[in-house]
Design a protein that fits this description.
heterodimer, A: alpha+beta, 3 helices, 4 strands, B: alpha/beta, Rossmann fold, eight-stranded mixed β-sheet
Chain lengths: 93, 263
């Protein structure tokens, strides 16, 4: 790589790689963004029965974990749900 | 022993037909008896790329329907007497042939040919199912672009589901100048993402356009894409050939630094 190339180096190639890696995880799991969105709405409904959550801060995605003892990768559903008020004194319905 | 190889990609326009023509011609050049089958019914193209479009009398559907014998439909190549083409039908549709019929057709060809190469249509529908039905092995062609790689990944999944476990990657239209600039995914990036062994990488070369214009596959001819295709053929035959340098030398410096890391 010469000086000109160092100065003008961009990284759209690595952007492409990162985007694909994310995309293919959900593709391989057969889980489309539409399904995730539906799942998210249902989760909000269910969890809201028990605690007050920050629906804007809720994050849900499909990632991968390596299966123990093999090099096989399995999809996992990852959900991060910020709780505002934890209703510990029983269930209010 | 014969081997049936399907050349597939999912996405259209990434170089399946060009790859089929060049790998087929290359294997024939290396002395193997080869038949190329165009399985893209309704959109026949392998005949023009091979420059054999004026010699078609019968086609794949004719053979399947019993309108002619296999021997009558096979077209002998212009340059290599051990290379044949079974053209596709232009005025029929994909449903004219079933996977079962394709399997039978391929089995019949095994007796006579060492390599049976199936040029698969784009997409994942009937035409794809027909093309992979009789295959032992698959070459997945992709380019270093997000759309082509995404589709290739889908194809890999479908090949596995259909018990074609031997799949290898051909990365087409690599531009090493862009890879070095960081603006194109490298061969390593593509194999990382798809998790397939790489059979070969073909540089983006305008000679390909010229050879297609002329209807003469360039395998082995020029020092660049033609050489990359010949290397693929050698690897198919089990020879160990390292990935070549994918760049025309411009100056001493670029030549020196442009060496491709061996995958």
């Amino acid at each position: 790589m010469n000086l000109f190339e160092i100065l003008t180096k961009r990284n759209s190639g690595s952007i492409a790689k990162r985007r694909l890696q994310f995309l293919l995880v959900s593709d391989r799991a057969g889980c489309t963004p539409e399904i995730l969105e539906m799942l998210k709405d249902d989760m909000i409904k269910v969890i809201s029965k028990y605690m007050e959550i920050d629906t804007d801060g809720l994050e849900i995605k499909i990632t991968q974990v390596e299966e123990k003892g093999t090099d096989k990768r399995l999809p996992v559903l990852y959900a991060s749900i910020p709780v505002r008020v934890l209703l510990t004194k029983g269930i209010y319905l | 022993m014969s081997e049936v190889i399907v050349i597939t990609s999912g996405k259209g326009g990434v170089g399946k037909t060009t790859t089929s023509a060049n790998v087929g011609t290359g294997l024939a050049m290396l002395g193997e008896k080869v038949v190329l089958i165009d399985t893209d019914i309704g959109l026949r193209n392998l005949d023009v790329v091979m420059g054999l479009e004026n010699r078609i009398v019968y086609n794949l559907v004719d053979v399947v329907e019993g309108n002619c014998r296999m021997k009558q439909a096979l077209i002998k190549d212009k340059r290599y007497p051990n290379l044949f083409l079974l053209p596709s039908a232009q005025t029929r549709d994909k449903s004219s042939v079933t996977p079962g019929q394709m399997k039978k057709l391929v089995e019949d060809l095994r007796e006579e040919f060492a390599y049976i190469l199936l040029d698969c249509p784009a997409g994942i529908e009937q035409g794809f199912k027909n093309a992979i039905a009789g295959a032992d092995r698959a070459f997945v062609v992709t380019t270093p672009e997000v759309s082509a790689i995404r589709d290739a990944d889908r194809i890999v999944g479908l090949l596995e589901a259909n018990e074609i476990t031997r799949a290898e990657l051909i990365v087409n239209r690599i531009r090493m100048d862009m890879v070095r600039r960081g603006d194109m995914m490298s061969i390593e990036d593509v194999t990382d993402i798809l998790g397939l062994p790489v059979l070969g990488a073909i540089p983006d070369d305008e000679e390909i356009v010229i050879s297609t214009n002329q209807g003469e596959p360039l395998v082995g001819m020029n020092p660049f894409a033609g050489q990359a295709y010949l290397n693929i053929c050698r690897r198919v035959l089990g020879q160990e050939v390292p990935l070549m340098e994918l760049e025309r030398g411009k100056g001493f410096f670029t030549k020196f630094t442009g060496f491709l890391k061996r995958a």
